[in-house]
């Protein structure tokens, strides 16, 4: 019919030929169609992997910078701490057990170790940390430090006209703790000055005693040398005396031929 002729625009042979040619095209196969679908997935995965690497590198860099900041901050804190107060250097409170002292020292010494830090203050800070550690592990040295800290507390209490039962003393605030810390510096500084004066006086006394001993040694040496000289000239002195005695006897004999005896008178 006319309708059928209008509907069938192409013949069946042409449709079949088109399908055959389409199936032969490389983009038309199912494998290639799936491969094309996976290409965006590969690109996305690769992009995600690259982004993950960049993020990891960034985090590692930030972590490194953070560690360096921590190192520098700790080194700065140690250098600003009052060197004579070992607790201050180690950032510890008085009365802590030895185990805490050892743990804190190990942690901080690893953090600021000169071999792991480019900070030029690291060696000095490390030495100060080690000295503070040794002080707190030395029973006598730690005892002296604890005594100074206790003295500083009592001085502060007296200055503020408080008692050990005062609330400000029992439950000290930040201001009281800071004032106490400053008073500890004062007490330790005075103790150091006193130690220096005592050392100077001791050195002077030792010097005086040494000079006295040297003088005594020199006096004994001179006396010994004089005795040696006297002993060396002994034979000469004896010989001279003999010569003198012989000469004197010869003179007396030549004058009178000898000594003339007096005649004794008989009484009666």
Automatic annotation (TrEMBL):
Compositional bias per record (Gly residues), positions renumbered to this chain: 247-258
Listed Basic and acidic residues bias regions: 203-240
Ranges of compositional bias, category Basic residues: 259-268
Renumbered residue ranges of the record's region Disordered: 197-268
SUPFAM superfamilies: Chaperone J-domain
PROSITE patterns associated with the record: DNAJ_2
Domain J residues, every copy: 85-149
Pfam families documented for this protein: DnaJ
UniProt cross-references to InterPro entries, sorted A to Z: DnaJ_domain, J_dom_sf
Identification of the protein by name: J domain-containing protein
Biological source species: Hortaea werneckii (Black yeast)
